[in-house]
Write a structure and sequence with these properties.
Elements lengths: L1 E6 L2 E4 L4 E9 L12 E6 L6 E6 L5 E3 L8 E6 L4 E6 L8 E7 L17 E2 L3 E6 L1
Parallel strand pairs: 2-11
Antiparallel strand pairs: 1-3, 3-8, 4-5, 4-9, 5-6, 7-8, 9-10, 9-11
Length: 132
């Protein structure tokens, strides 16, 4: 099955930066076509619902959650490495959450789904903690 592994989380002070990575693999496929999939980042804080952060399509089309990203985050992908990155700058305490990457089974999907039920595969998450 498809596996997603997040990394790059940690503890930073407000105003600091982190780069999260999401590496995809499929034990059944030697050349998994991760590059053809929409990949999204979500986050979840204790007691809150999981919320959309950012996503990128196979063609590089990007959408961010305009409520809190506001130019601070950048999503990108390295298809050769089956990896999607989330560069987070100027972090704030309210960014503290577990960050998850997700993808789905559809290839060459141009439309980005900002709801978590639009995704089929999820990683285990990486903790981001921002201190004041």
């Amino acid at each position: 099955q498809v596996q997603l592994v997040e990394s790059g989380g940690g503890l930073v002070q407000a105003g600091g930066s982190l780069r999260l990575s999401c590496v995809a693999s499929d034990r059944m496929l030697r050349d998994y076509d991760f590059s053809s999939r929409v990949v999204a980042w979500f986050r979840q804080s204790p007691g809150k619902e999981r919320e959309f952060v950012s996503a990128i399509t196979y063609s590089g089309n990007v959408i961010h959650n305009s409520e809190f990203v506001k130019g601070r985050f950048t999503i990108s992908r390295d298809n050769a490495k089956n990896t999607v990155y989330l560069q987070m700058n100027n972090l704030k305490p309210e960014d503290t959450a577990v960050y998850y990457c997700a993808t789905n089974t559809e290839r060459y999907k141009a439309m980005i789904n900002t709801s978590e039920n639009g995704y089929d595969y999820w990683g285990q998450g990486t903790q981001v903690t921002v201190s004041s």
